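Sample pair:
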Amino acid sequence: MGENGRVQLQQLFSPSVQHTLDVIGIFVFAISGALLAVRKNFDVFGIAVLAEVTALGGGLFRDVVIGAVPPAAFTDLGYFLTPLIATLVVFFLHPHVERIQTGVLVFDAAGLGLFCVSGTTKAYSYGLNLTASATLGLATAVGGGVLRDVLANEVPSLLRWDRDLYAVPAIVGATMVALCIRYDALTPLTSGLAVVTAFALRLLAMRFHWRAPRAWNRRSTVTEE
């Protein structure tokens, strides 16, 4: 798919639809960051910082890499304010939010699916090859969570063997988009299928506790740090 394909790619979704999907994903990711901040006993400023970083970190990294500067996180007030709204929700209602943690995780899985697809398509539309685009799609989906855990002084969940699969569903979703682009098959329908596939894989991983394998013939008795 050449330049004409990239133009067609940009026309797949209207700006308003893309913006709405982004804001939904940002809000859900911000909730997860704010909840971790509450568990860590952060003050309101710390809660806001963790919410902003979790929600915008992956997209910010992607935009800097592809040269989409200033990044959307700084040019769209809605992107910046949405995590602050999530901060207020968690600050005042965190006991209630904690009680619906399963629901939050479901929406987080949906955000994972949305961001791995939107990140891949945006990277490709800026001229990156398919492999690099899929990689940035993954980074868009999981980057904020990695930054969240680092700031909270935790080993990123992405790297822990005792956590249900998170990156793998995003990899699958981003790869599906890349293959659809390669074969000129990317449409709103196939994009939606990639989102649903990543979303469903994440839900199945949570339901059945699917985890990535550790080193073959591992002899260490350490189970967790």
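The longest helix spans residues 15-39.
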